[in-house]
Structures are given as structure tokens and as C-alpha cells.
Amino acid sequence: KEVMVDVDSKQQRAKPHWYERYIQPCVAELVGSALFIFIGCLSVVEDAGGTGRLQPALAHGLALGLTIAVLGNI
């Protein structure tokens, strides 16, 4: 017996909508950058006397991690 396999039967992914292709990445970049800068600047302004450089460094790291976790799939 011969089995015929249709090579063209693979489903093709639909083209992404223009919003998903152009607008959504720009908005995600804007929100991520704003969050990173806002939290970073706030940590420097509200720096406690005894923490030195640790508080701003941790705040920047956590802001970056949060941004990547939330907006990374876009």
C-alpha cells in the first residue's frame, strides 16, 4: 500500500495584525521605559541615609525584572 502525504497540509500562521506588529511593541517599550526610569529616579530621591548605593541598585534591578516579566512576551 502506498500512503499519499499532502505536503501542503501544514497550517500557516496568520499574519499579525498591524496593531500587534507596530503599535503594541512601541507602547510596551514606552511603558517599560517609563516604569524603569520612574522607579529608578524615585529610589534615588527617596534614598535613606544608611543604604548608600544599595537601594537604587536594587530598585533598578527589580524594576527591570518586573518590566521583563510583564512585557517580555510582547
From TrEMBL:
Q: What membrane topology does the annotation report for this chain? A: Multi-pass membrane protein
Q: Which residues form a coiled coil?
A: none
Q: Could you tell me the keywords of this UniProt record?
A: Membrane, Transmembrane, Transmembrane helix
What does the entry list under GO cellular component?
membrane
In terms of InterPro entries, this protein maps to: Aquaporin-like, Aquaporin_8
Main location, first listed in the record: membrane
Q: Where in the cell is it found?
A: Membrane
Q: Which residues form the signal peptide?
A: none
Top-rank taxon = Eukaryota
Q: Any idea what this protein is called? A: AQP8 protein
What organism is listed for this UniProt entry?
Asarcornis scutulata
Organism ancestry: Eukaryota, Metazoa, Chordata, Craniata, Vertebrata
Gene name as annotated: Aqp8
